[in-house]
Amino acid sequence: MMRLPWRVLAPHTAPVRRASSVPAGLMNFVPACSTTDAHSLELLQDFVTRARRLFVITGAGLSTESGIPDYRSEGVGLYARTDRRPMQYAEFVRSAKSRQRYWARNFVGWPQFSSHQPNSAHKALQRWEDRGKLHWLVTQNVDALHSKAGQKRLTELHGCAHRVTCLGCGAISAREELQRRFISLNPEWRAQAGAVAPDGDVFLEDEQVLHFRVPSCDDCGGILKPEVTFFGDSVNKATVQFVHERLAESDAVLVVGSSLQVYSGYRFLLAARDREMPVAILNIGPTRADHLAELKVSGRCGEVLSVIQPL
């Protein structure tokens, strides 16, 4: 088992000046952060080099560099910018009006949300897989950017917004197919879009969605829902068990771009602690698992991971 001593990452050396990994137009959702210093990069490189079967957990902080906002980042996350909160599972299931509002917003936001592309951090992790460094990657994101980057050893813990499920018969279909059905059912419907949310919908006033029509499942007439885990719902037990098995096969854990505030991801850090596995965290700002980490690096995911080699 690889063990590393605790490292406190004080800025021992001057920051390394590198071009930003984030295009200027996408910086709005990335929290303020100074350039990661050279000493921190050396320690993270040492951590990755020592690992032979690396288990990686990613979160919304990875995708902010692709232009998708997160929920909790100071100053730029959804909670900081608005008083809006994400859809709750119980509300979606219980209320046809809530489903209408959700799908109308999602319909308007889908063209932009579905067009986002992987950034340098997604691409770096895919290269780590190709080189045999990365044993398994678990993402809490629902944006499909890891898949777009070519990641194969991947579990989408909270599902994927590019898929739709029927709550009646369980049929899975493509979100793009549902978009075509929305257009067919609502040929004259128009709405002015507001700011985009992390789950892909936009802000619309209630009166804007009154006449929006929502289709049912083609197979059974059941309720259609994004194949994602809404707040208040739980992750499939078989998925959780599968991830625990992949963790047991690994020898180190790296958290990238997640505050781990949601238990569904944090539980794997607790399991890693029980297995006495070394943990490193790359994130802007504090996380729920800082006390479990032997190494904590602050920095933008793309800038840091693009210079770490899977040796």
What do you see in this structure?
β4 and β5 (about 170-175) form a beta hairpin. Helices cover about 35% and strands about 15% of the residues. α9 (about 235-250) packs parallel to α10. The protein has a six-stranded parallel sheet, with helices on both faces. It is built from eleven helices and nine strands.
Task: Give a nutshell description of this structure.
This protein has 311 residues and is an alpha/beta fold. The chain has helices at 38-50, 60-63, 78-81, 89-94, 96-115, 120-130, 145-148, 175-185, 237-248, 263-274, 301-305; strands at 54-58, 134-139, 154-156, 159-166, 172-174, 224-228, 252-256, 279-282, 295-297. The longest helix is centred in the middle third of the chain and has 20 residues, at 96-115.
Descriptive labels:
three-stranded antiparallel sheet, alpha/beta, 33% helix, 11 helices, 311 residues
Question: How would you summarize the topology of this molecule?
Answer:
Elements: H1 38-50, E1 54-58, H2 60-63, H3 78-81, H4 89-94, H5 96-115, H6 120-130, E2 134-139, H7 145-148, E3 154-156, E4 159-166, E5 172-174, H8 175-185, E6 224-228, H9 237-248, E7 252-256, H10 263-274, E8 279-282, E9 295-297, H11 301-305
Parallel strand pairs: 1-2, 1-7, 2-3, 7-8, 8-9
Antiparallel strand pairs: 4-5, 4-6
